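Extended Data, panel c. Modelled sequence:
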Amino acid sequence: METTFQIIQGGMGVGVSNWALAKSVARCGQLGVISGTGIATVLARRLQTGDPEGHYQRAFHAFPYRQIAQRVWDRYFIADGIASGTAFKSIPMPGVGFSRALTELTVVASFVEVFLAKEGHGGVVGINLLEKIQTPTLASLFGAMLAGVDYVLMGAGIPRFIPGVLDALARGEPAELKIDVEDSQAAENFASEFSPAEFIELDSAAGLAPVPQLKRPKFFAIVSSATLALTLSRKSNGHVDGFIIETSIAGGHNAPPRGPLQLSQRGEPIYGPRDDADLQKIAAIGLPFYLAGGFATSSQLRWAIGQGAAGIQVGTAFAFCQESGIREDIKQQVLAMASSGNATVFTDPQASPTGFPFKVVGLPNTLSEAEIYSRRERKCDLGYLRKVYKRPDGTPGYRCAAEPALDYVAKGGADATPGRKCLCNALFATIGLGQVDQSGVEEPAIVTAGDDVVNISRYLQPGRTTYAAADVLRVILEGVIPAPPGVA
């Protein structure tokens, strides 16, 4: 499988980079990417809203283990959809030891999203996962590989054990992933485990079916420095196939600045020359690399290629196109603000419970407003960004800096909770799948985008108020290479 594409569509947020967006990009000859973040909850809640066009039913029928698929379908599908103002059925929170039900849901969810993204064309599709969300990773990867995913993209950490995981799963062998556990000793080993053979045994109808030998997807690590790229290329437990070099103006989580944290007058982290990746050193590694964060024009693509890059990754431009999973009202608000020159992005050093800086678009009635944030009752009921820590009895516990402050401190967390936001619940609200409380009030949204959100009106054709993924590709590829099918 050759790396022939010049544009990677970013795997954004929770459900923003959905199968429809990835399919549109892949059909145009570029790398379409689905987001694997919170994929189990995405599917569970989508099924509870119904399946009027039959897409999910079609994907479930394609899942190779029918009993498992049927259990997931029966557990969550509501034919006419839940009533407005009704709470979604909860699912188990991810932890070091997955329950059978959550394992099944995660594998099926990852399979379904990749299957639908790849259906009906010969393009390439990837899945994006976050290294800091470790416990669902193995099940997510297996489900994606069952559907024939072509690429795995992973950042927000040092994912040096993922190549070996992909090798094991491709051979049908058990895989193990070391889990970062706070307060543990170096010699202590906490790990997540997944066995393809044991998963298949959950479907008694499969009988003595052999464990499948799967295509090993290529692995691209998302990094911000030449040092990390070199470390991963030399010290990973398997082959790294390429890199995505992300700058500090990209959306979502950013790598913190090097050295002591300094804030601007606006309260944003200050990045300097030390935070710029050395592209010559990265090129010398000899693996293909793509530049990400503010590279969304034809001139920037040409510049990237001139630096030795194979192309660029583009996120923000795709986040607000017609096919993305963001709520339509939010898209229209952000597009209107960008068109009028009023769009703003704040790199918030406090928002994420992970401690990483997080880009937040200023938008009315979202968590970007202090009043909305202060009104929300703190709770942790999804758990994707929880950190694992070792309890006094040696067992793993879970804490999140965005949960109720007293709970967090009681679990041994430092008193660093002011300003922390529940990104899990807020990002689900951004795609129209927000949980509602007993009074029918939905969780407030949060919108993340890169600094380039101020320029997204460049993709609008005259007289239009929306644009498609193909419009993004048309603008970027204009004058760079002949437009692939579907872009002209």
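Residues 7-325+462-477 form a domain with the TIM Barrel fold (CATH 3.20.20). This feature is highlighted in the accompanying rendering.
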